[in-house]
Amino acid sequence: MEPVHLLVAPDDRRRVATLLGGEDESLRIEPLLCNDIWMRDAGPISVLDRAGNTLFLDGNFNGWGGRYPHELDALLPLVLARRWHRPRQRLAMCLEGGAIEVNGAGLGLTTTPVLGNANRVNPPPDQIEAELADWLGIDRLLWLPHGLSMDHTDGHIDNLVRFVDPKRLVCCMAGPDHPDAAALADNRAVLEQALDPNLELIDLPTPVVQSATGQALPASHANFYLAPGLVLMPCFGQNTDDEAKATLQSLFPQHRVLDLDCRPVLAHGGGVHCMIQPLQGRIDPETRT
């Protein structure tokens, strides 16, 4: 079981708790005002310090380069650290959780259109790499050249490439009808050249999804969330849904892959992984104020 802390507007706490059957050890309703639902990017990034205690990293969220209101979301790491009595460390850069993917064995992935974007006001790449080495234990950071062109984050890695385990990655590829087919193929070529030969790349299909007005949307089956015994995979009512589910099921044989229709979420610009930020350690009820 993975306990869930659900952030809701204070005025909605009672109604949401009733809709979900009340609070218990598996669900805590956290009254807190936010600008949006994308906790992966705005929330604290949890790491363990050398003593094994949880530390909240504050990535200085700026609304994806000032693109959207973020005055409340930017305070989330500070507010939650105080509420749950966790130490907090501000990074010397702007880092959204969806902008970084790590294998836990020293390898990290990101994209140049995000961390290298002038709208993040980040230091030079060598300083970014040093900061991530200090706080995330990354010995090597690979920079992919492209994100999904319709992604309002400028191209997060969690829509492109994800680690299945330290030695295997799923990599988004697309057919010729996808607007980013060439960019995704270019990303894969960069990975093939840069990765150690003992790392395995597995292709994951990328659907073509449009809004009601015909605008391309950043749909990705790679935006899954790995929970105890479950893989929560976005699906979009496209012919790639079954192939992506079968691929992930083969890679996670001890898990049940649960495909979730994410079209309503995608209409707002994100997916399952974008909404969830895991927390290290237990948050006891008595620490909540």
Give a nutshell description of this structure:
This protein has helices spanning 13-19, 39-42, 63-66, 76-83, 112-115, 125-136, 181-194, 241-251, 263-266, 272-275; strands spanning 4-8, 27-31, 45-48, 54-58, 88-90, 101-102, 107-111, 140-144, 161-165, 168-173, 200-205, 225-227, 230-235, 256-261. It is an alpha/beta fold and 289 residues long.
Uncertain runs with pLDDT below 50, 5 residues or more?
285-289
The biggest beta sheet is recorded as: 3 strands, mixed
The strand order across the widest sheet is 3-4-5
Number of strands: 14
Termini distance? 24 Å
What order do the helices and strands follow? Answer: EHEHEEHHEEEHHEEEHEEEHEHH
Residue-averaged pLDDT, rounded?
95
